[in-house]
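Hey, can you fold this one?
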Amino acid sequence: MKEVFIVAAKRTPIGGFMGNLSSFTASQLGAAAIQNAYESIALSPKYVDSVYMGNVLSAGLGASAMSLS
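Sure. Predicted structure:
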């Protein structure tokens, strides 16, 4: 079995319905979380094999927002 390391954990901000974050898609928010995670670690992205993300209440997102991030 390969060794597994969790090097960062980030989340997107919480916004209200039709609030300040409503102009962003779930994919854009996910991409921002991934970018912020990479910025917080001293490790090149070429050494990262997998990124795992999840979401709650995904109705209406269409294609998987995590795979589009």
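The chain has a mean pLDDT of 80. Let me know if you want another pass with a different chain boundary.
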